[in-house]
Amino acid sequence: MFGNNPIRPREDNALTLAVQAIFPTIQGEGPYAGRCATFIRLAGCNLACHFCDTDFESKIDNHMAVEAIVDQVRSYPEHMQKLVVLTGGEPLRQNIALLVEMLLTKAGSKTEVVQLETAGTLWNSRLNPWVHRAALRIVCSPKTPQIHPEVADLCHDWKYIISVRDAAGDDGLPHQGTQTRNKHLTQQIWRRPGGWLPADVVWLSPMDESQIPGLVGDNPTRLTANNHMAVAMRAMTFGYRVSLQMHKILGVE
Fold first, then answer.
1. What's the structural domain count of the chain?
2. H helix intervals, 18-165
3. The pLDDT value given to residue 183
4. What are the φ and ψ backbone dihedral angles of 155, each rounded to 5 degrees?
5. Residue 213 has what pLDDT?
6. Are the beta carbons of 180 and 48 closer than 8 angstroms?
7. Side-chain half-sphere CA neighbours of 84 within 13 A
8. Edge-to-edge strands of the sheet including 241-242?
9. Contact 243/25 with Cβ under 8 angstroms?
10. What is the pLDDT of residue 181?
11. Is residue 91 assigned to a domain?
């Protein structure tokens, strides 16, 4: 989308969800990297990040019943069902509480963990019991100066996108927000008030600049390679964890 997507409002309907795609794959990033998984990519986002290379908008009118979504997940082999990843866009833009409940409790379901990938600006308190039972694991990638306070309390995995073209704070984490490239210099990205996050829950992911339009005078391949080196150096300096986009290396969606 590269920041050109419409800013979509929140939707409250729990029975049907706008779905971009459902597919079995390998989780490429974060705490479950390398595991077989089924991705449910929900359509639409409440943000517009200038580096985002994911299509989450073209199926914005593809509304599926939650039961149909769960049935499609169940149609895949058992080992693909154990980890289900809710992503987007921004999955919390929609009311995913019933979907999470059915994935974890519907008769015949093999799902053990649902991973929720979010920018953390929104939350649904009906999800709290699943987080406390460790059946729902939040991976928050902050993109703005503020995130929802319940996300701050419940999340244990924080992923930051690293580009050498963006300034870093004295903790090695990106200092700028991600909205509108020419205006993001004054938008400090979120970090926990009163202190740094524990190093072992911070994941650094190199920005893939190979497809970003408008990089006049820059070599995207060189920039991406520099981002990889920046991730390695900052991880070794601060004790953070590295999160490569393994699915791209493997050539799967």
1. 1
2. 66-74, 78-81, 97-105, 128-132, 149-154
3. 52
4. -80, 140
5. 64
6. yes
7. 31
8. 63-65, 16-26, 36-42, 83-87, 113-118, 136-140, 157-162, 202-206, 241-242
9. no
10. 57
11. yes
Which residues of the chain register pLDDT less than 50?
Answer: 184-185
* Residue 75 domain flag: yes
CATH code of the domain covering residue 84: 3.20.20.70
| The token pair that represents 210 in the structure block | 């190979």
CB of 30 closer than 8 Å to CB of 246: no
- Within a domain: residue 11? no
Task: Give residue 190's domain range.
Answer: 16-250
**Res 215: pLDDT:** 55
Look at residue 211 in the predicted model and tell me its pLDDT.
67
Cα Rg of the chain (Å, integer): 18
**Which residues are CB-contacts of 205 (< 8 A; sequence separation ≥ 6)?**
29, 141, 159, 160, 161, 162, 231, 243, 244, 245
> pLDDT at position 20, please?
98
User: What pLDDT does residue 1 have?
Assistant: 77
Residue 3 inside a domain? The answer is no
